């Protein structure tokens, strides 16, 4: 593969999930020189925790099917609750019909690769996904606020608005699931993981976020269910 093509990987971050230590090392070494970031995990639960903390910075998930703790499909079911549009490549030594059928039920799977992985093929497919053109997705939230979902940018009165910490994570989780109610349980699990938290903690995040957005109506609390953001376009 030519260097110009490999350069397409420079702007993407990849999460590799592989329980075989030797295979994981080989995949990581093949991508590190080209990708912006390479995250790694050897089991599905650890991978999900890495994703939960870095979901805004992971463009493509490359995963084996048979993993300890959570298999790939269990892990992906959790991931797509955070980002329904997550791109994924599944690797397996046993591409059985049932695995293929299961993978295609998860809309975000872009590719199914047979192991042992041919590194140039993997690099090529990652580059194709990186090159794939995507129009900017603009979501209007109010007369004053809109979001460029593609570039992950927020604008208030046509000026960039920077959110930080839990408020930023909370906001983008709702944007990735626009017009859908995200339950208190999903939100708490996403923001706090195994740490102890309560609906009160969640409410305080929302209060601070509303102050940053300078709009109390953007984030909607659905009583006894969760929170959501609605688009107006």
The count of strands amounts to 12
Q: Using the coordinates above, name the CATH class of the largest domain.
A: Alpha Beta
Q: Which structural category do the helix and sheet elements fall into?
A: alpha/beta
> How many structural domains?
2
**Run of helices and strands:** HEHEHEHEHEHEEEEHEHHEE
Report the sheet-strand fraction: 15-25%
- Inertia-based shape: globular
User: Terminal Cα separation, in Å?
Assistant: 42 Å
Biggest β-sheet: strands ordered side by side in the sheet: 2-1-3-4-5
Helix content: 40-55%
CATH topology descriptor of the largest domain? Rossmann fold
What's the number of helices?
A: 9
Low-confidence stretches: none
Radius of gyration: 19 Å
* Overall CATH architecture of the largest domain: 3-Layer(aba) Sandwich
Largest sheet: 5 strands, parallel
Topology:
Blueprint: H1 3-6, E1 13-17, H2 21-31, E2 37-41, H3 44-54, E3 60-64, H4 72-82, E4 87-92, H5 97-105, E5 109-114, H6 119-131, E6 138-140, E7 145-148, E8 153-156, E9 159-160, H7 165-176, E10 182-183, H8 184-192, H9 199-213, E11 219-222, E12 226-229
Parallel strand pairs: 1-2, 1-3, 3-4, 4-5
Antiparallel strand pairs: 6-7, 7-8, 8-9, 10-12, 11-12
Describe this structure in words.
The chain has helices spanning 3-6, 21-31, 44-54, 72-82, 97-105, 119-131, 165-176, 184-192, 199-213, and strands at 13-17, 37-41, 60-64, 87-92, 109-114, 138-140, 145-148, 153-156, 159-160, 182-183, 219-222, 226-229. With 233 residues, it is of the alpha/beta class. The chain has 2 domains: 3-131, Response regulator (Rossmann fold); 138-229, Winged helix-like DNA-binding domain superfamily/Winged helix DNA-binding domain (Arc Repressor Mutant, subunit A, Orthogonal Bundle). The strands form 3 sheets. The chain has a 5-stranded parallel beta sheet, with helices on both faces. β4, α5 (97-105) and β5 form a beta-alpha-beta unit. α3 (44-54) packs parallel to α4. The longest helix is centred in the last third of the chain and has 15 residues, at 199-213. The protein is globular and about 50 Å long.
